[in-house]
Amino acid sequence: EVQLVESGGGLIPPGGSLRLSCAASGFTVSGSYMAWVRQAPGKGLEWVSIIYAGGSTYYADSVKGRFTIFRDTSKNTVSLQMDSLIAEDTAVYYCARENGWLFDYWGQGTLVTVSS
Amino acid sequence: QSALTQPASVSGSPGQSITISCTGTSNDIGYYNYVSWYQQYPGKGPKLLILDRTDRPSGVFNRFSGSKSGNTASLTISGLQAEDAANYFCSSYTRTNTWVFGGGTTVTVL
Question: Is the pLDDT of residue A4 over 80?
């Protein structure tokens, strides 16, 4: 059974850093395309970043230069390093598996709150 | 990349059919046939409902169907049931190798 479990969210002051992790089971992240999608409180979904099986990475303009996506194949995890956080980054962050230009499995999400 | 446009809410009585629209541009919905729809209950992660405009993953009821015309995609729920009360999001792959989502539509079953 495919499962994705996010962790690492919390309350962080503006300008701070946070690392989110996504533990995958039922498949290998090394052979998959893995993404992060976020949802601000009461808002719609926003695609954040993706890492392809070959290692290429892409980012939304809103986070480019501040966020870094990477994976640990030994632990079968995908992580999102978030630096220079701003209030607008406050959201629930979901890990999702991309499969044919869509997202077929999602985690339950982890909440990141950027506030002083 | 601007978000896709969806109505904020749609409602219907049990057994009725409702349609949710999702309007994009020639750089996303109008360019690719890579539209997908997701269902989300409060406090839960999204669930894939429709892929490639019209196909359903295994386990998704055939009451849900998708279509696309030009820059607009649509999700139709036939024979509305109480458990269909949820939030629905559309998504499209874009020409800039990114994804864009809609703002979400809350479905209310009267």
Answer: yes
